[in-house]
Design brief:
By secondary structure, this protein is mainly alpha-helical. It is about 80% helix and about 5% strand. The protein has a two-stranded antiparallel ribbon.
C-alpha cells in the first residue's frame, strides 16, 4: 500500500499536468488542479501516518533506483535553476530597457510619430 501511495504522489501530478496542458477549458483545468491537490494531500497524510519505508524495487530501466532518483533530482534542480536564470535575465533586460527609455526622453520627443 505504501508503494502505491508513493507512486500516486509521483505519477498523479505528472498526469494531471499533462491533462492541464492539453485541456483548454479553464473551469475543467481549475477543477483538475483542485482535485490533484486533494489527492496529494490525502496520500501525503496516509504516507506520514505510516512512517518511513523503503521501496522494494532494486532496478528500473536497467539502473539502480537510488542512482536513477539521484540523477532525476539533479536534472530537476538544473531545470529549475536554468528557468530561474532565464526569467531573471528577461526581467533584467526589461528593467534596463525601461531605465534607458526613462533617462533618454529627449530622443523620443524629437522623433515624429507617423
Amino acid at each position: 500500500m505504501l508503494e502505491s501511495l508513493a507512486l500516486a504522489c509521483i505519477a498523479f501530478p505528472i498526469l494531471a499536468a499533462l491533462l492541464v496542458l492539453m485541456l483548454r477549458v479553464s473551469a475543467i483545468r481549475g477543477l483538475l488542479v483542485v482535485a490533484t491537490g486533494a489527492v496529494l494531500a490525502v496520500a501525503s497524510v496516509l504516507l506520514a501516518k505510516n512512517g518511513a519505508f523503503t521501496l522494494t524495487a532494486d532496478t528500473m530501466f536497467g539502473l539502480k533506483v537510488d542512482s536513477l532518483i539521484l540523477v532525476l533530482d539533479f536534472a530537476l534542480l538544473t531545470v529549475i535553476f536554468l528557468l530561474g536564470l532565464w526569467y531573471q535575465l528577461i526581467d533584467l533586460k526589461l528593467e534596463s530597457q525601461l531605465l534607458y527609455y526613462s533617462t533618454v526622453p529627449e530622443y523620443y520627443e524629437d522623433q515624429q510619430l507617423t
